[in-house]
Amino acid sequence: xxxxLLAGMAIAMMATPAFAQxxxxxxxxxxxNNPFFDVARDGCLKRAKxxxxxxxxxKGPVEHEPATxxxxxxxxxxxxxxxxxxxxxDVAAMTKSIEAATAAGIPVITFDADAPGSKRIAYIGTNxxxxxxxxxxQLLQLKPEGGKYAVVSGGPGAKNLAERVDGxxxxxxxxxxxxxxxxxxxxNDDPALAVQQMADLxxxxxxxxxxxxxxxxxxxxxxxxxxxxNKNKKDIDAGKLxxxxxxxxxxxxxxxxxxxxxxxxxxxxxxxGEKAMDVxxxxxxxxxxxxxxxxxxxxxxxxxxxxxxx
Length: 310
Fold this sequence. Notes:
One of its GO terms (cellular component) is outer membrane-bounded periplasmic space. It is found in: Periplasm. InterPro entries: Bact_Solute-Bind_Prot2 (IPR050555), Peripla_BP_I (IPR028082), SBP_2_dom (IPR025997). It comes from Bradyrhizobium australiense. GO terms for molecular function: carbohydrate binding. The protein has twelve helices and 13 strands. The protein is α/β, with parallel strands linked by helices. It has two domains: about 130 residues, 3-Layer(aba) Sandwich (Rossmann fold), CATH 3.40.50.2300; about 140 residues, Response regulator (Rossmann fold, 3-Layer(aba) Sandwich), CATH 3.40.50.2300. Strands 6, 7, 8, 9, 10, 11 and 13 form a seven-stranded mixed β-sheet that branches. Strands 2-1-3-4-5-12 form a six-stranded parallel β-sheet, sandwiched between helices. Strand 3, helix 4 and strand 4 form a beta-alpha-beta unit. The radius of gyration is 22 Å and the shape is elongated.
């Protein structure tokens, strides 16, 4: 009887979730003060809960600091986590970090911002060249007569942002739009600085016809952004200044609805966070994963913004 009881206890213990393999996957954003990455975090946490045997850990630099991001990744390598999903702030720095993680037996994928020459296994996110093309095409559709335009970017070492800038330029090539000197500016993902750069561009070129931020940074400082728009409201309402902004977070959709931009081109960060967990788990299981997973774009104007806000 005792043997039967012990055997039953052993079977019950084996079936208990506490004995199941649990993987610790880390999602490392460029900057934790950027609300875009909060949405990716939420997708990661949701999917990890659904999977049951995955823990989503979210940690990165508070601000856009590639050196700090590299140190955080080194700390996770030391902790021997089961997988890393990195939004690459600086390609050169992260290529070394990814190599170190890989050497330690930790699989690495990238999301949002890629390092294609590195040892990362897969990239999940936006086709950034297409993203830039979409931004430029939205501007061209809104104001085909052209004028002078400027681009606001984030970190100068971020490959994804360079691709977006190239896309904007390609979309406007051959049109009557001309990029001004000093464009793009680099705000290092700092929302307040992005707003200030918009104001500086407008001051430097009073007849500036359009500003295209290739990330949502200025709108992430909504009060400062609204102050800038209100100061230039007369020209915006008259069609003399057009604002086409990247990303479609809720606060941005509300600003568009309320007349604070002309158009938005959005990514899908929630889906990036979800798919990062799926891909890392598949890698740990020894499954083959696609090298590139594009998550798509959303084009938003005043005509369809209400639908996206539902």
